[in-house]
Write a structure and sequence with these properties.
Layout lengths: L9 H20 L6 H18 L14 H11 L2 H7 L2 H10 L3 E5 L4 E5 L7
Antiparallel strand pairs: 1-2
Helix pairs in contact: 1-2
Amino acid sequence: MAAIPRQPAAADITAEFDKKIARYRQALDEGASPAVVGWIAEAEHQRDKALASRPAARESDAIDPMTAEDIASLIAELGNIAAALEEADPEDKLDLYRSLRLRLTYSAETQTAHADIDLGAHR
């Protein structure tokens, strides 16, 4: 399989501190001491510092290109995606299609549908 980048994603760092900040805010809403405001500011500062101190991604940290064997293995691991989608809950499929920015255009004249997906956000 392809190599996995070594440094934690910015989203992981942000999520960790955002959880802490949310707990502090909840405590404040529940009547905790106003000193909690200082804790929130400190957690925000630590989050920003952690994000700023992350080294820039180096070319050597990039994911190695996948070989034909890697791709075949990945497809085998995923199984029959078409069957899974067919059996999936319609609301779950709607969320998936929206996240992929799937757009279907129906032509009454030819009785066909054209599917278009914007993968830009997923690359």
